[in-house]
Amino acid sequence: MTRVNVLPALSSDTRAATEALAATQAASSQGQNPEAERLQLLDTQQEWSAFSLPDKAEVGCWRSSVVFEGMHCAACAITLEDALRSVPGVVSVQISSASHRGQIVWSPARTRPSEWLQSVQRVGYKALPANDAHAHETRRQEARRMVWRLSVAALCMMQVMMYATPSYLYGPAEISAESMHLLRWASWVLSLPVLFFSCAPFFGNAWRDLRERQISMDLPVALGMGVTFAVSSLGTFEPAGPFGAEVYFDSFTMFVFFLLMGRWLEQRLRDRTAGALEAVLNRLPDSVRLRQTDGRWALISIRRLAVGDVIQVMPGEAFAGDGRVVSGRSQVDEALLTGESLPLARQTGDRVIAGSHNLSGPLEVQIEQVGAATRYAQIVSLMESAAVSKPDLALWVDRWAKPFLIFVLIASLASAVFWWPTDPAHALMVAVSVLIVTCPCALSLATPAAMLATAGALARGGVLVRKLSALQHLAGIDTFIFDKTGTLTRDAFQLSQTHTRAGVSAEQALAWASSLARHSLHPASRALWAEARAQAKTGIQGAALEALNAQQLSEQAGQGVRGQLQLPDGAWMNLRLGSSVFCDSPPFKSHHLQVSLADDLGWMATFELTEEVRPEASQVVCALKNAGFTLKVLSGDSQAAVSQVAERVGIADAQGACSPQDKLKALQQLQANGHRVAMVGDGLNDGPVLAGADVSFALGQAVPLAQSKADFVLMGSQLDMLLATVLRSRQTLRIVKQNLIWAAAYNAACVPLALLGWLPAWAAGLGMATSSLVVVLNAMRLAKSTASAVHRRSPKA
Amino acid sequence: MDILYLLIPLSVALVFFILAGLWWAIHRGQFEDIEAEGERILRND
After folding, report:
1. Which residues in chain B have their CB less than 8 angstroms from residue A75's CB?
2. Which terminus of chain A has a smaller tally of CB atoms within 10 A, N or C?
3. Which of A129, A141, A183 is nearest to A160 (CA)?
4. What is the pLDDT of residues A531-580, one digit of tens each?
5. Which of A676, A612, A678, A600 has its CA nearest to residue A648?
6. A8 pLDDT more than 50
7. What CA–CA distances, in Å, run from A353 to A50, A377, A719?
């Protein structure tokens, strides 16, 4: 922080505020039912196709996805279904009380979305068009196909097992050859759907890999399936052939079923992670009230919203874009986007973010970002890109998987050759067992499954993971370096000391200063105004303070602001607020920011402002110290200011006056001494330092996410989550290690068994599916929300 | 034992028949929200 002695850019915008208020009143009186008007915007095909698809069963009808608010139980779903069905033109309604989602099929010839959406409102609920409908629909289709494949395999497996039972129970002498042949025929027929339908993804992937000259897990599996089916078919139709009369249809259908079971569970885990932010995705409103050039408000679709537009947001509504409040005062709920659970106060000049909710009063917002540029869209895309990034451990496993697979192919070939002279059919089945049992599915699932589950859970707690591999590095961290400004402190200031001329009390001076400061957006002015209001609340002069409102404001760029204030006795006072030069202030020796006030008699008071330390900072520092971390502050600010802040939060090691190069040098020094360092900064100024650190955290509020280079972004700009994130990453790594050890041990144990011919094909399939299942279930333990981890935070964790 | 020549092909046909029913159920989304079907008993109509 450099010393700032000026007070630039004070502005008075009372005119705009009154204008806006009048317009608000006009807007509410102009339409009898603004909600109905808003819904009617959805009544064009262009708008409704954002959340609807043409229905496949009912020709000419649309199937719309809707998210309901205010739904609690099954009875709510029934009420809603009845209400929707009563609308003529609505063909069918399906509402899930578990997910609060519904599908409505309706005919555009007879009704419009606004009509059936209004019927929902009439029974006291709220329906929002689901903007993620298409992604959701794709996921649902995939899940259905998977369940269908699994069902085919399951049912055919059961029946084939029935046909196989006699051959296990009775010797050849007890069953006639014709009956046996008939049973084999039936098994063969029922294996066909399993081979051609249920196994299709395995064959498809194997074929794709062959064409690209790659090798993957699906190749040995597909090979095993193909060989088993071929041997069994030959056994059925050519009992006198080289492979004998033995058939393995029961083994074949069984391991296909087990394999699909594992894949299905894996898919469900992925869907759960992908759905973690689903609630966030539906937050944007579909229409906004836009201020037109004549000052009137008009409803437009969100897709026509542009940067610079001023929109009005009523309580209960979500913000359509990132922007700045131009008038009004309210509280907003950013919980889903930042993890900040308390409502936040927002007034003129404050920023609001798309997707957060306005809670208490109407706000007018000038839009600064729309669409993909909003924080909201960035969060969503960040989550998506993190989900496809491969962690280092997974890359390492993939590197080893290839030689391992080649080894498996060679080993199974060798075992087939070895057993061939004794019994060709047995030889092939041993080879198949080897192929199936060694599939390293569990090995390659171990890392990504656990890390994805953690990333989803952290996102719900307000921490975004930009790279999954960072979780791995974070677990080994022993040192934290903090930046000062914007990290340990907020960007806002706090009044620390007031110097006044004789005869003027500090409170009086502050009250007068606030009459000017209340109109300004400068951080110093806002600190004065906030302090005056806080004092008025405890004292007696609340109403008196409101009455102190300076008029005729004029500002002098880079100097300060002057204005006139009418005192309660009717006299006028000329006031100046700004730099010490502007107010002819005597010099005060201090390294804090100073703001002076002067009246007609000259200098009156000087306010010293210090940076406001984050309220949670000392608690977080204490918790981190107890957990055994080394802490350090590195800042570009003066040594005195840095030491003071460091002392207040409880960090002994503080280094001020650092250039970015100095910071990097200090960081490399620590790393050379064997420390693993995490850097916590505002994410923008400390680029090289963040990049040099083993792991970096950025406080998300100040910085455009896309520009931030940090591995983790603390969305709520709260430090609270630091320790929880480290603990969670350690837990993740622990689970990844468990998974890897389990998968490796499983393969190490089963390969020799299979090579010796002690493991039948069905047992190989069961073993393989179980190993994947264990890995996925173990990873699912991490999907629990991080909130509990924060509250249970023990000092000795 | 001759009846087996009828019964076994019949059981194969039965499996396909059940599969068809399962296809219909899955693609109507009956397994996506298990609770909803149970809750239907609470409905008035």
Report:
1. 42
2. C
3. A183
4. 777 777 665 555 666 667 777 777 766 677 888 877 777 777 888 888 77
5. A612
6. no
7. 22, 10, 20
Q: Is the ipTM of this complex over 0.85?
A: yes
The residues in A 163-202 lying below 8 A from B, measured between CB atoms, are 163, 176, 179, 182-183, 186, 189-190, 193
Q: Which pTM does this prediction carry?
A: 0.62
Q: Which chain A positions have a beta carbon within 8 Å of B15's beta carbon? A: 155-156, 159, 190
Q: What is the pLDDT of residues A316-342, one digit of tens each?
A: 777 888 888 988 888 887 765 665 556
- The count of residues in chain B is 45
Which of A65, A96, A137 to mutate to probe the B interface, most B CBs <10 Å? Answer: A96
Whole-number Cα distances in Å, A277 to A265, A344, A529, A740, A788? 20, 21, 38, 28, 19
Q: How confident is the model at residue A135 (pLDDT cuts 50, 70, 90)?
A: low
Q: Chain A contact for B10, CB < 8 A?
A: no
Q: What is the DSSP letter of A486?
A: I
Please name every residue paired with A677 in a beta bridge, in sequence order, or none if there are none. A479
Distance CA A545, CA A537 (A): 10
Write the CA distances from A532 to A125, A501, A508, A515, A545, integer angstroms: 43, 19, 10, 9, 8
Check if B12 contacts A (Cβ < 8 Å): yes
Residue A98: the pLDDT is: 62
Q: If you search the block for the tokens 């009509």, which residue do you land on?
A: A115
Closest CA to A469 of A454, A482, A484: A454
The Cα A665–Cα A566 span in angstroms is 57
* Higher-pLDDT residue of A265, A653: A653
Which chain B residues have a beta carbon less than 8 Å from that of A166?
none
How many CB atoms within 10 Å of residue A732? 26
Count of A–B CB contacts within 8 Å?
A: 69
Which of A98, A81, A72 lies closest to B34, judged by CA? A98
Is B36's CB within 8 Å of A75's CB?
no
Q: Is A536 exposed, middle or buried (0-12, 13-18, 19+ CB in 10 A)?
A: buried
**Full residue range of the structural domain in which residue B25 is found:** 4-42
Name the residue with tokens 């296909």: A256
Number of domains in chain B: 1
